[in-house]
């Protein structure tokens, strides 16, 4: 018998696939490919997210990690994300949120990489604030090297 979370994810998956490239690896794991938005330093890139869906979903948030290296203020060199930025921290999560909203927040972070108050990548955040042109060059170089 399917869990309530599995039933809900079964309904959410097609909605997500209408907007994003989503590969269901298992009932509890998706790989999502985001395209770098035109006009951003990530333009032309393809970024793969690993989405681990807990058995308690939607009452507990997904755990998301970038598999593709990205130079971004809210993403560490290892691909860990700032859960607060993407509103998937346990204290900000609620069962009314859904995976389409989560994926939309990641797409928005590619379009506008403005750093959070406590960025996951302080070097990228400093570059973004102090020398936006240098930030954009570095991000674009990472796209060319890691996200093609």
Structure, described:
By secondary structure, the protein is α+β, with helices and mostly antiparallel strands. It has four helices and four strands, in the order αββββααα. It has a four-stranded antiparallel β-sheet with strand order 1-2-3-4, with helices on one face. Helix 3 (122-130) packs across helix 4. The chain is globular and about 50 Å long. The N and C termini lie far apart (41 Å). The model has no long low-confidence stretch (mean pLDDT 93).
Strand and helix map with partners:
Blueprint: H1 4-19, E1 21-26, E2 29-35, E3 46-52, E4 63-66, H2 99-111, H3 122-130, H4 132-146
Antiparallel strand pairs: 1-2, 2-3, 3-4
Helix pairs in contact: 3-4
Strand ordering within the main sheet: 1-2-3-4
Please give the radius of gyration in angstroms: 15 Å
* Helix/strand/pairing category: alpha+beta
Tell me roughly what share of residues is in helical segments: 25-40%
Strand content: 15-25%
Summarize the biggest pleated sheet: 4 strands, antiparallel
- Give the end-to-end Cα distance, rounded to a whole number of Å: 41 Å
Average pLDDT, to the nearest integer? 93
* Unreliable residue runs: none
User: Helix and strand string, N-terminal first?
Assistant: HEEEEHHH
User: Got a strand count?
Assistant: 4
Shape: globular
* DSSP summary: helix tally: 4
